[in-house]
Design goal:
Elements lengths: L5 E9 L2 E2 L4 E5 L5 E6 L8 E7 L3 E7 L3 H4 L10 E10 L5 E17 L11 E15 L2 E7 L4 E4 L2 E2 L2 H6 L4
Antiparallel strand pairs: 1-2, 1-7, 3-6, 4-5, 6-9, 7-8, 8-9, 9-10, 10-11, 11-12
């Protein structure tokens, strides 16, 4: 039915610090399977073969200058930064549900808007994070969990890498 998944509100937490009221934009990571075309001698055309995943990154913007995020820039030995995005969605019949995204990784870029004359109220600080972990949960149900360090790629409750981990005795 039309209008069953309408974003109503969202807020972001960076390394456990809430940014509600200051977060102005969030771009979730693109999830992409890399493929290689395979064609044997008896095949009429190539078929795509899963060749792993493309690197993931996410961006968000905070109004003004976020001094707490500035201190989180770059690699900290043995520690991945965490970001959580909590969203509420509604449908046309009045129902609502939550969507929680958990991101782990390294903040690799911080960009501040240029300053000029006139109003400065719309100036933001944009952060880019390269991910080493991504999880999406809707109303307690895990929809996506991608954990390349531990060899997990679970989509809709099916971990497509579980068999490979078992064969390599990594479980």
């Amino acid at each position: 039915m039309a209008g069953d998944n309408l974003l109503k509100r969202w807020a972001i937490w960076v390394d456990g610090i809430g940014k509600a009221g200051n977060a102005v934009e969030y771009t979730p990571p693109v999830i992409e399977v890399l493929t290689t075309d395979f064609q044997s001698g008896d095949m009429d055309m190539p078929v795509p073969v899963d060749d792993g995943m493309a690197a993931m990154e996410s961006t968000w913007s905070i109004a003004g200058v976020d001094v707490t995020t500035l201190a989180l820039f770059g690699l900290v030995q043995g520690k991945s930064r965490t970001v959580s995005v909590r969203s509420t969605y509604t449908d046309r019949s009045g129902g609502s549900y939550e969507l929680v995204e958990e991101l782990g990784g390294m903040i690799t870029k911080i960009e501040r808007d240029s300053m000029g004359t006139g109003s400065q109220r719309s100036k933001n600080q944009k952060c880019t994070m390269k991910l080493d972990y991504y999880k999406v949960v809707r109303d307690g149900v895990v929809l996506i969990e991608i954990d390349p360090i531990n060899g997990v790629r679970s989509l809709g409750g099916v971990d497509v890498l579980e068999g490979a981990r078992a064969l390599m005795k990594l479980m």
